[in-house]
Amino acid sequence: MPTSFSSRLASLVTFCVLAILVSDRAQAKDPPASPETWQLAFQFTPDQTLHYKDHYHSTIRVQKADYSLRVLNKRNSRKHFKILSVDDDGRGLVETTIDRVKITVTKGDEPPIRVDSTADPDECPRDFRPFLKTIGEPIARTRFRTSGEMVKVLSVSRNWLEAHPGSTIESMS
């Protein structure tokens, strides 16, 4: 009986595999239906504003010889875009502003450094104070194509440039 059951099971499996192969070949001979094509595009309208939340988490491990350090970064921010203008090609000039930010940085076993833009700036670690001056003011203007591709980014905040050494007014062209 067990041999009979095994042979029946093997026959059933073989039949199923052959049925699948035949079905796949039949489908391969039929030309695929041509799908409809769509082109998605942004339609920018002056004075539109988009509020959004941005979450960033990273872990960095630095090692030199036997010394190793793990740095954890966590940033939660609220930002908004405002469309300033739209050119004849439909490209939008968009201004970015950071409305609020919470940052936590942990280096190895040290206590975490916490920054909250709504807290008293004097209680903020000194290294983060230039960055806090950028909260609530426009930091960049970006020209976007209707496809969403960035054409050019211009920093418009002196505070942002001071908080990010090495950055330039024109960061992308």
Question: What structural class results from the helix and strand content?
Answer: alpha+beta
Output the helix-strand order: HEEEEHEEHE
Helix fraction by DSSP (H/I, runs of at least 4): 10-25%
User: Which term fits the overall shape?
Assistant: extended
The total of helices stands at 3
Alpha carbon gap, first and last residue? 78 Å
Report the biggest beta sheet as strand number plus sense, adding barrel if it closes.
7 strands, antiparallel
Count of beta strands: 7
Residue-averaged pLDDT: 80
Tell me the Rg in angstroms: 28 Å
Walkthrough of the structure:
The chain is 22% helix and 42% strand. It has 173 residues and is α+β, with helices and mostly antiparallel strands. Strands 1, 2, 3, 4, 5, 6 and 7 form a seven-stranded antiparallel beta sheet that branches. Strand 3 (92-107) and strand 4 (113-116) form a beta hairpin. The N and C termini lie far apart (78 Å).
Task: List strands and helices in order, with pairings.
Elements: H1 2-29, E1 49-64, E2 67-86, E3 92-107, E4 113-116, H2 129-132, E5 138-144, E6 150-155, H3 158-163, E7 170-172
Antiparallel strand pairs: 1-2, 2-3, 3-4, 3-5, 5-6, 6-7
